[in-house]
Write a structure and sequence with these properties.
Oligomer: single chain
Structural class: mainly beta
Helix content: 10-25%
Strand content: 35-45%
Shape: globular
Strand order of the largest sheet: 2-1-5-3-4
Number of strands: 7
Largest sheet: 5 strands, mixed
Radius of gyration: 13 Å
């Protein structure tokens, strides 16, 4: 079975940033947001990410920096046996993990 390795920024403005690695089982067609949901369900329920597509039928809240480029986690497909770096957006106040202020 293939995995996707996510290298993700964790922490907050008080504790500082750390990079945490997660191995996620790859599933055909999964997005990076799906991989983060898997982490929250199976590894760490405290992982924070902003999204609205599943609860409010809205979009454009799951933006993060993926391998150095800004993009929507829901639309970036995971690739089997890949390593992906995910960080919060730059230029906005950082709140926690992948969450930044929407201002």
């Amino acid at each position: 079975m293939s995995n996707v390795t996510l290298h993700v920024v964790r922490g907050d403005s008080e504790t500082g940033r750390t990079m945490v690695d997660y191995e996620v089982p790859y599933q055909e067609g999964m997005s990076l947001l799906d991989a983060i949901f898997w982490i929250r369900e199976h590894k760490d329920t405290s992982f924070s990410v902003r999204y609205s597509c599943r609860s409010a039928n809205a979009c454009k809240e799951c933006m993060a920096v993926v391998d150095g480029k800004a993009g929507y986690l829901c639309s970036i497909r995971a690739v089997p046996d890949s390593h992906v770096h995910i960080e919060p957006l730059t230029g906005l106040p950082w709140i926690k993990d992948l969450i930044t202020a929407l201002e």
